[in-house]
């Protein structure tokens, strides 16, 4: 009599593990976490002064009034790095305000420190193939 009860208990445990495991499958990081990761990657690349890694965080569709395409973003940031403006840089995204709508995001209140002083940054990003990539940034 002990055997059937053990078998039922084992089957019940197995079913519970399968149900819980299936609910966890497919749940990756949230959009907000992905956005924060992109910005952290951007900041680390800026700090390392690695322009290729900086540009890996950018969308091919990058554009703004000052930088009409990704290449001009590259030129702008490379100029900042070459001039030494990004030396000893640090970014704080803890207080960042993230707004997401229709595959686009805006991130404001990002603290950024360089040898030139403290600045605020705002980023625009869009979701492409599951990744959030930067389309623009402004400082104030």
Comma- or semicolon-separated keywords:
140 residues; alpha+beta; Nuclear Transport Factor 2, Chain: A; 4 helices
Structural notes for this entry:
The protein has 140 residues and is of the alpha+beta class. It has a single domain, classed as Nuclear Transport Factor 2, Chain: A. The protein is built from 4 helices and 5 strands, in the order H-H-H-H-E-E-E-E-E. It has helices spanning 2-24, 31-48, 51-55, 70-82, and strands at residues 90-92, 97-101, 104-114, 117-128, 131-139. Strands 1, 2, 3, 4 and 5 form a 5-stranded antiparallel β-sheet that branches. Strand 3 (104-114) and strand 4 form a beta hairpin.
Label the overall shape. Answer: elongated
Which stretches are poorly predicted, pLDDT < 50 over at least 5 residues? Answer: none
Q: Largest beta sheet, briefly?
A: 5 strands, antiparallel
Total helical elements? 4
Helix share bin = 40-55%
User: Average pLDDT, to the nearest integer?
Assistant: 87
Strand content: 25-35%
Assign the structural class, choosing from mainly alpha, mainly beta, alpha/beta, alpha+beta, or little secondary structure: alpha+beta
- The number of distinct β-strands equals 5
Name of the level-1 CATH class: Alpha Beta
Q: How many distinct domains?
A: 1
> What name is given to the CATH topology?
Nuclear Transport Factor 2, Chain: A
> Terminal Cα separation, in Å?
76 Å
SSE string: HHHHEEEEE
CATH architecture classification = Roll
Gyration radius, in Å: 22 Å
């Amino acid at each position: 009599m002990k055997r059937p009860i053990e078998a039922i208990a084992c089957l019940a445990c197995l079913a519970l593990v399968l149900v819980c495991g299936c609910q966890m499958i497919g749940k990756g990081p949230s959009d907000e976490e992905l956005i924060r990761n992109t910005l952290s990657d951007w900041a680390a690349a800026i700090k390392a002064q690695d322009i290729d890694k900086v540009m890996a965080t950018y969308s091919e569709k990058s554009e703004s009034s000052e930088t009409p395409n990704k290449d001009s973003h590259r030129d702008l940031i490379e100029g900042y790095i070459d001039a030494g403006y990004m030396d000893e840089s640090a970014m704080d995204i803890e207080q960042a305000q993230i707004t997401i709508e229709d595959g686009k995001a805006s991130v404001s209140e990002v603290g950024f420190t360089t040898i030139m002083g403290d600045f605020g940054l705002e980023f625009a990003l869009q979701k492409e193939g599951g990744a959030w990539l930067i389309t623009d940034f402004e400082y104030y």
